Amino acid sequence: MKLKDGHSNRRTFLRRGLWGGLILSTFGGGLLAWPTRSTNITTKLKTLNTRTFSVLCAIAARVVPPYAQATSKQIAERVDALLSMTSPETLADINRLLILFDNAFFGLFFHGHFGAFSYLSAETQDRVLESWRDSHLLLRRSGYQALRKLCLAAHYGDPLSWNDIDYSGPRSTGGIFYNDSQWGTKAWRVKQIKESQK
Amino acid sequence: MTLLDQARQSSNVIDGSRINKNLELSADICVIGSGAGGAVAAHTLVTAGKDVLIVEEGGYFSHLDFSMNEAEVYPKLYQEGLQRATQDLGIAILQGRAVGGTTVVNWTTCFRTPEDVVDHWRTHHHVGGFKLADIIPHYEWIEDRLCMQKVPKEQMNPNNRKLFEGCKALGWQVDTIKRNVYACMNSGYCGMGCPYNAKRSMLVTLIPDAITSGARLLFRCRIDRLVENNNGIDHAEGTLLTTDGYHTRTETVRIKAKHFIVAGGAINSPALLLRSGINDHDRVGKRTFFHPSIVSVGLYDDPIEAYYGAPQSAASHHFSHRSENVGFFLEAAPLHPVLASTALPGFGFDHHENMKPFSHIAPHTALTIDGFHSDLPGGQVTLRPSGTPLINYPLTPALWESFRFAQKRLAQAQFASGAKSVMTLHDPPLVMRSPNNIADIDEQPFETCRIGVFSAHQMGGCGMGDNHQTAVVRSEDLRHHRLSNLYVMDGSVFPTSLGVNPQQSIYGLVRLMASRLVERIT
After folding, report:
1. Which pLDDT score, from 0 to 100, does residue B88 have?
2. Residues B482-510: pLDDT tens digits?
3. Number of folded domains in chain A?
4. Among A70, A115, B495, B520, which is disulfide-ready with B125 (CB 3.0 to 4.6 Å)?
């Protein structure tokens, strides 16, 4: 079987994974740290640090819909809470990813924009997100998807966002529920037979 | 008061988050996990007079907790708050985590195991310990207890109806399915726990039955390891969790039992064995199967409202068998804002444009049938340094071929049922305006993290079989090949995927094997 365009196999995956790991350890380790546009943080962070929280705010501002009622800071706070349910290793990866995302040298190397993501113009930030999305490196594509999904989940979990998509939300149960306390009793069996005969 | 309410008030139920001392417990049988496998095993054993202790990591909820709001419910009811995925994020994994396990959040679809699958296990994986006929009485019992009924055609929601009509128009096999519901209000929120107590999950049926019959339940407790002694398990060690169910406390638990049944599902069961150093012949965690699935989104003029109505009521197995290629089956998937937003491609304005017709889109999915081809050996569960499961699943060329083929078939069916456009979940997506565009799918990149791939069915990882070098547990009783009092009774024992939604297969097989265990230890 031959596929027409680029397919992934174990070897290419490993090669990309190893290459990505090397990049992460080099650029993400703080060796080439770059100042991040800071965000005023008013709540106690559960999983992110002040720097990665600020980067996430900048990303959230581009990922959630332009008409969102929630601020990017509120989105980032929700993501911070969501991440508390993941493993310590995943959490560490997300923090490293956010530092990498904002790294000016990494940006220059991969998408030709020198400067921390949080300082770029909105239009340039969108081009950067696209470059992560379309990258040949699996690591960058997966990083983009991780951050994108977290921000969107945090946004659309809020009922205030539902109006925009014409979703009226769950219908009230009106307190109705199936009381199964009689299940299996003789009375229940008789009722079953009567209903099946209707 | 419901059966569940009665059970929750029982003194047999212990909330681990409220215990302020180290616990020492003992039982004849300790069942770790309370989902489709654990609940059935516990129920079968306790109703036969055995002393059973069930241990569950997740919380113990009732229909009153199921608010139908994804942001509130997913953290309570799903593994990792619905953020579980393979390491490269290539496959998003939907798996439950609560008393009742995934049965609390599944979409209620019930199938018996196909006969050809059991035949394949016998001929290719040395599964000689039972015949399908042995399971039939257990299927019948569970079908009655869980009120499994075929959905009447008129009750299909528009989402399922479109799939049904599309398949019919093309002459493909399609049928309505069985669901395990009673007095169902067709709210559409099965994936967030049934707010009407209508879904006959383990939470509201066999777990309450088991507790009423004398089983004890310790929830919000994570079993960290099983400790061996003389070719058996001596005891289990665990940690009590906080009320959110995610963070450990300093209080521990030690459980002595004559028999241990591991039933944490296809990811957590192998992870527990690996944490315990039980990995004879390096088989544990291997051959993990997901029914990796892609989605096609049809846009229709008429409202679909895929968030209301029974989430699944139709399925097509027309493409299950594709000789040397990987087969797949077709189902509809429900859609709610969080799930939809993470699945639909794009960001910012583009993403919003994809979300805008939310009430008019029909997501139909193709679930590939993994484990039957040499190029598709499945994934692997290993451990992170913290002991949590790390999941890898190489998406092989055979799978990509199947995805590409399936993507075309889904688009074909959606156009046949009146879709005005069809979108793939590539990022950026391919939007097809007419059937003439379907060939454009060939130009799309089918690569990891360029297209959304999902799994709602996890199987394998502790495969059964009669060859101790290739299988983890024996097929005659699901007992570990070396450890005389350790059993695995959940979906992890399947040597391949099933080609159908797995809950009923787990119920039936586990009830057979738990019945055999009752006979053996009586």
Report:
1. 96
2. 999 999 999 999 999 999 999 999 999 99
3. 1
4. B495
Q: 3-class SS at A124?
A: helix
Is there a contact between B197 and A142 if contact means CB atoms under 8 Å apart?
no
Nearest chain B Cα distance for residue A160, angstroms: 11
Chain B environment of A153 (Cβ under 8 Å): 82, 338, 341-342
A146 lies within 8 A of chain B by CB: yes
Taking the CA of residue B256 and the nearest CA in chain A, the distance in Å comes to 28
B57 secondary structure, DSSP code: S
d(CA B346, CA A188): 52
CA nearest neighbour of B174 among B413, B408, B369:
B413
Mean pLDDT value across chain B = 97
Nearest to B490 by CA among B298, B286, B284, B269: B269
- B356 close to A (CB below 8 A): yes
Please determine, for residue B69, whether its predicted confidence score (pLDDT) is greater than 80: yes
Structural domain includes residue A66:
yes
Full set of structural domains in chain B with CATH: 20-68+98-147+194-282+462-521 (3.50.50.60), 153-181+293-369+396-452 (3.30.410)
**Pair A157, B338: CB distance under 8 Å:** yes
* Three-class secondary structure of residue B483 per DSSP: coil
* ipTM metric: 0.96
Cis preceding linkage at B158, omega within 30: no
pLDDT reported for residue A33: 52
Q: What is the pTM for the complete model shown?
A: 0.94
- The DSSP 8-state label assigned to residue B74 in this structure reads H
Q: Do A82 and B398 touch (CB under 8 A)?
A: no
Q: Is the pLDDT of residue B282 over 70?
A: yes
CA separation for the pair B364, B355 (Å, rounded): 16
As a whole number of angstroms, the distance between CA B375 and CA B418 comes to 36
Pick A166's closest partner by Cβ from B67, B204, B358. Answer: B358
pLDDT tens per residue across span B23-42? 999 999 999 999 999 999 99
Q: What confidence tier does A2 reach under pLDDT thresholds 50, 70, 90?
A: very low
The whole domain housing A122 covers: 34-159
CA B339 to the chain's CA centroid: 17
Measured between beta carbons, which residues in chain B are less than 8 angstroms from residue A176?
A: 185, 196
Q: Name the strand (E) or helix (H) holding B506.
A: helix B503-521
Beta carbons of B71 and A157 less than 8 Å apart: yes
If you average pLDDT over residues A91-107, what whole number do you get? 88
What is the nearest CA distance from B3 to chain A, expressed in angstroms?
5
Q: Which of B214, B236, B264 is nearest to B50 (CA)?
A: B214
